[in-house]
Amino acid sequence: MSAAAVGPRAGFGRAVAWVLLLAGGLAMILPLVFMFSTSLKDASEVYDLRLLPAHPTLDNYVTVLSDGRFLRWFANSMGVAVVVTLSNVFFDSLVGYTLAKFEFRGRYIVFLAILSTLMIPTEMLVIPWYVMARNFGWLDTYWGIMFPGMMTAFGTFLMKQFFETVPNDFLEAARVDGLNEFAIFWRIALPLVTPALSALAIFTFLSNWTAFIWPLIVTTSKELYTLPVGLSSFAVEQQIQWELIMTGAALATLPTLLVFLVLQRYIVRGVVLAGLKG
Amino acid sequence: MTDQALDHVARGGFWRGLSLRRKQVVWAWGFLAVPILFYALIRFYPTGEAFYISTTNWNLLTKPGFVGLANFKRLLGDPVFWQVFRNTVLYLVIGTPVSLLLAFTIAYHLDRVRFMHGFIRALYFLPFLTTAAAMAWVWRWFYQPVPIGLFNQVLSTFGFPQQPFLRSTTQSLPSVLAPAIWAGLGFQVVIFLAGLRAIPTTYYEAARIDGVSDGTILRRITIPLLRPTIIFLVVFSSIGFLRIFDQVYNMTSGDPGGPLNATKPLVLMIYQTAFSSFDMGYAAAQTVVLFLALLAVSLVQLRLLRDR
Q1: I need a labelling partner for B137 at 20 to 30 A (CA). Which of A28, A172, A274, B14 fits?
Q2: Both B189 and B258 in a single domain?
Q3: B219 Cβ partners below 8 Å, 6+ apart?
Q4: Belongs to which family (chain A) (predicted)?
């Protein structure tokens, strides 16, 4: 923190800054507040921009959830995001660990090759991925949604940097004790980098939960949509029933917000870690 | 899988005969086998294929025919491409400086605040956790004409004229950009806060003893020491704005790309060319342009980091 200037004028300036910061922060969450409040209003009240609904009702949630599609999309998104996250946590760590802690010819080339894929934007690969999914029959399947993201160079790079801070003595001691290399990775090294693992897990889950363009391309039947794609098609259908659209948007937003409220400290730290080291 | 294979080998004498160093090498390649296959098939091969498709006239149905650089020549003569190019550049050159200036101002002041620091930070950070496709609809609702839209209701309450927002060729691009800036701001704020906290307080104390003013401290100490953070955020957000899609697709779904393509970014053009017109060769050529733009941003970053 920068040193405090003393005197009443500085104190006044700080109070003004504090009030402005708070006002700006409240303005930031205004779209979220309006989304939730409208989701609790009935159709006749939507055009009344009162923040608190006069007659709060869960009818919209009942309407949106009762046709089953939203629950299905919700489950699809959750399943896809969880599987992809687990895969990234496992493989990115394994590769990061190998590149950080093993000495073998070709290590640097493998590292550079993986790193170089960071230069290729997803949008460049969607056409070849689509062709590949079409040829292998992966269009409109869960695997089709998931396969491009099962490992990432970003995660590998992040984990490699953290494994480099693990002292070799620990690993040597385990080797002397007769543990095999996979057990050393799994039981000794991995527990030492849990902050990095949670950062990677949070980042991967969030980016898959909100992913849009690839699920939009690879899925055609409504049962396979993820929540963002489903919501988008639902909103186009509803057109003017804004209270139902807001309810759908609220359902898409709620899980990440709830998790954030519980794990705020870890999430902010994880995002900073992933952002700065990755 | 590898585990079992290696155990099997281990039971024979071959494995025991290997030196520790050799065993390590075998383990390493064993660990890397599946990932190498993945990167080869899902990253490298498709990259090559994208370049290859960009030189064909493939439309998914017929066999691809080689057309050389014809797709790129067609791009140069396509007025829609130039409109899209202009839009994408506008997203970048408005979005990046505006969001960075806002984020820095917020982080700089928030850094000095102790009272309710965590709560205020959370307010700014929350939008980063939202789904762009969902929030696009909330913003779209805000932009509607009276009596539906929030913004026009507020304008009319204070006696200002109604604004067309998404329906206008001039206002629609900034209207689509606003939620993108809004959603990314929290990430930039927490990264700036981390960068500010990493600056040793002794620098500030020394400056304070020398009687240096706040403004000078900001210009001479804070900003120069934040240089790596600033470069990271400039590149990160530039890449984000170059790839903007979710917001545009959802806010202009009735008329994708807005009135007269006023909001259409490169990625939306790629999506439509490939998956509405199935003109795969032409779409692949557009992805090559996107690749080159991102490459240029990354090269600028490397250059800036080296100049330190």
Answers
A1: A274
A2: yes
A3: none
A4: Belongs to the binding-protein-dependent transport system permease family.
- Nearest chain B alpha carbon to A228: B133
Instruction: Give the distance from residue B35's alpha carbon to the nearest chain A alpha carbon, in angstroms.
Output: 7
CB burial of A236-268 (b: ≥16 within 10 Å; e: otherwise) equals: eebeeebbbbbbbbbbbbebbeebbeeebebbb
The answer as to whether B265 is a domain residue is yes
Its pTM stands at 0.88
Which of A18, A104, A123 is closest, CB to CB, to B243?
A123
Q: Which residues of A touch B265 (CB under 8 A)?
A: none
* Model confidence pLDDT, tens digit, residues A144-181: 999 999 999 999 999 998 999 899 988 889 888 888 99
Instruction: Provide the pLDDT for residue A1.
Output: 39
Interface with chain A: mutation pick from B59, B123, B144, B237, highest number of A CBs within 10 Å: B123
Confidence of residue B135 (pLDDT cuts 50, 70, 90): very high
The tens digit of pLDDT for each residue in B77-129 reads: 999 999 999 999 999 999 999 999 999 999 999 988 888 888 999 999 999 99
- Which residues form the domain of B173? 70-306
Cα of B170 to nearest chain A Cα, Å? 23
Residues 125-164, chain B, touching A (beta carbon < 8 A):
125-135, 137-139, 141-142, 147-148, 150, 153
Amino acid in the structure at residue A128:
P
The domain segmentation of chain A, as residue ranges, is 8-57, 68-277
Instruction: Name the residue with tokens 């900034």.
Output: B174
Q: Take residue A61 and report the two structure tokens written for it.
A: 């949630």
Under 8 Å between Cβ of B159 and A241? no
